[in-house]
């Protein structure tokens, strides 16, 4: 990767840009100085359609003028704006800066809409039709790519419409998740569990915790191996919101169900990331979005007036 981020490529791009401009000047000069072999009637000898002859006339002055103006403009542009590798130009303009300015302008326009909800409890915001319409748009633009348009998630992406939460489902915790993001890490545990057969036995014990179909003999043998998992999931397997450790007793499988899926998880572990949204959304937007997400799994409460 360092080959693509070294200073060489900055110089390479700048060099190619300048050489291209210089080449255009040379081409213009050469076309004005070069003399083509012509006949006495100032033709090149090329004939089409019987009598259509190519003349050897110089380029029109207006065309040459436009060509020169274009080259001068390109040099001025490169001095003012980025175009020579990573040189910023005199104006210091960047597409990222332009984007940030336009986002800030748009946020300033909609700020009053969010301001009236910012002082309301999330439970009350989740009952407001206008706030929920705004929350739905925010969700579609920022969350639906992973959690789905219906918020029911998919393999590896939590369902936000049920009552199962890795870190807790209160409005404050949801807001913290949005602001800071989450980094879930299940380390490979095969070495701590024992042999491949021990891993399979443990997988069946984990299946038994939720009443899922399992081999009872293997589950009984795997129970003693669950101690390697208890530090995060608890001795009862009910998980730990402080660590984001899933509840293994509720028959909700974020990364897949069955012996093979659990064995793979024990052997290889899993790293999941929920990106922080604080840099993308304003405080008011996060408040409305958190209220919307909370309302998805508390429909009875939000329906009550």
TrEMBL record:
GO cellular component: plasma membrane
UniProt domain Cytochrome c: residue ranges: 130-210, 217-297
Cofactor note: Binds 2 heme C groups per subunit.
Gene Ontology MF term list: electron transfer activity; heme binding; iron ion binding; oxidoreductase activity
Keyword Nucleotide-binding: no
Transmembrane portions of the chain: 12-30, 62-81
Keyword Heme: yes
Predominant location: membrane
Function per UniProt: C-type cytochrome. Part of the cbb3-type cytochrome c oxidase complex.
Protein name: Cbb3-type cytochrome c oxidase subunit
Organism in which the protein naturally occurs: Limnohabitans planktonicus II-D5
